């Protein structure tokens, strides 16, 4: 496919502050606020800022309300994970204008992750959707394990399509397709996205790749060529899934922006400021960024 078929602009949804930090115990509330502010300063406009989940299960997200209330909501579009009505109510109270709900295309993963079947998870979301509609809140849907599952192995494309359509029918404005264990390849990505596009417009789909096997950027490129123009990423390649053994972090936002800049695709994100945001949070975590672009920029500045 030619350059002209690629989108001219890509919406980047930054998930580092939530998906990236939900397994990190060293991060303070102040660290999270500083990370989000640094991301905003770099030009990032769509940021998943927290999760209103049980502190018993995800204690690292217990301060989400404090984090989100401290943000200037005129500077960016902040969203939060809201798995139930209580979480949605707390998110709204904090100033959130977009909820995120999540299920999976794998029955086994759904049972392990949220202790119910796929169809039960969809049914549980109905009260969240009603609440969101009453308060003029947009809702984004996540579908995990679209390329494979750590428990059941292969996942049928038809099941990804079915679950995505159910979330759209429920009222989600966009579906984020998550390769939770990072087993996808460009060929699989093309097959999946092509199948989804038979029933769902490209502007209602986003991709969310983990880089376990080093395929995330090539998978994103395959999706871009098919018209997908929304991509999830995490600064410094933060993240990983506690329910998916061996799953590494999300594709690094710095690496994504470098690729998009090279393709002439606009994002309005300043890559140097973005790298600095990644170095800052990586310093807090006492580890190097999982971003080759960030490491290269750092070496060049040394």
From TrEMBL:
Protein name from the UniProt record: hydroxymethylglutaryl-CoA lyase
InterPro entries documented for this protein: Aldolase_TIM, HMGL, PYR_CT
A molecular-function term among this protein's GO annotations: metal ion binding
Pyruvate carboxyltransferase domain sequence ranges: 10-275
Pathway assigned in UniProt: Metabolic intermediate metabolism; (S)-3-hydroxy-3-methylglutaryl-CoA degradation; acetoacetate from (S)-3-hydroxy-3-methylglutaryl-CoA: step 1/1
Record family assignment: Belongs to the HMG-CoA lyase family.
Enzyme class: lyase
Any single Pfam family the record assigns to this protein: HMGL-like
Keyword terms of this UniProt record: Lyase, Metal-binding
Database matches in PANTHER family: HYDROXYMETHYLGLUTARYL-COA LYASE (PTHR42738:SF7)
Example GO biological process: L-leucine catabolic process
Record carries keyword Signal: no
CDD domains from the UniProt entry: DRE_TIM_HMGL
Known EC number: 4.1.3.4
Superkingdom of this protein's organism: Bacteria
